[in-house]
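Justification of computing resources. Each target in the renewal requires a structure prediction run like the one illustrated here; the chain below, 156 residues long, is used simply to show the kind of job we budget for.
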Amino acid sequence: MRRSSGRCAWSSRPAAGNGSHVVIARARPRSNDMFQGSTTGSIQQRVLQQAPANLQRGLETVGGRLILTADALHFQPHAFNIQTQSLTIMLLQIASLQLCWTRLLGLLPLAPNSLAVQLADGSEHRFVLGKREQWMRAIQAARDAKRQAATPPPLP
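Resulting structure tokens:
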């Protein structure tokens, strides 16, 4: 997979030996960019899980790929969508996860095959994907591991 939106290029390639993948992001500095303050370079992250998914954005359901790393949940849309902006949700921003229904035009329930990701700021992102229960457990486990790593050990 190779994608370029002008400010960030992503590629996925097999990692040596174990068949897992590495996501590489190259970013140009931008005032509101998550890579702010860095020069053009690369950030490598081990992919924990990835699968085809759709993201509900207003009235459009955007097709693409959902990628879980140890630090973030990434959504990379296909190039042929109207809305082609990628989405990165840092795991520590996730307040809760909830199984939900896919909605037609954001209103009419169609099928129970979506996962809602609520963020600490009150916003919500809905992903339509297979094995949503497995995804929910994987995201929760990665988020909990990240929280535990960020928590300082108790003083003796």
